[in-house]
């Protein structure tokens, strides 16, 4: 799978996904870095068939209105990077399966939510 990690998440997030065998970029890898606008993130994700990983509700609104981008929403509130990594590692196979048939998946501290 191909992912694009939004600015408010750690760059390490892309490293975790890459170590798990995925193609992952962080906004810091884009020409404008963390100054990349949401619309540019969406355009990049669509052009490269990437799933946006974000905490930003603006991507939810975009998905609900336009169906773009494919989205992994992180709904954990404030969370330590180590705890986020543990949560992702524990749920990665479920996330991979969910994106086999769906385009909007949400991870909370307790659940993996698949949005239709």
Helix content range = 40-55%
Main sheet summary: 6 strands, mixed
Beta-strand fraction estimate: 15-25%
Anisotropy-based shape: globular
Number of domains: 1
Structure description:
The chain has 116 residues and is an alpha/beta fold. It has one domain. Helices cover 42% and strands 21% of the residues. The protein is built from 4 helices and 6 strands, in the order βαβαβαβαββ. It has helices spanning 12-19, 38-47, 57-66, 81-101, and strands at residues 2-5, 23-26, 51-54, 71-74, 104-107, 112-115. A 6-stranded mixed beta sheet has the order 2-1-3-4-5-6, with helices on both faces.
SSE diagram, text form:
Elements: E1 2-5, H1 12-19, E2 23-26, H2 38-47, E3 51-54, H3 57-66, E4 71-74, H4 81-101, E5 104-107, E6 112-115
Parallel strand pairs: 1-2, 1-3, 3-4, 4-5
Antiparallel strand pairs: 5-6
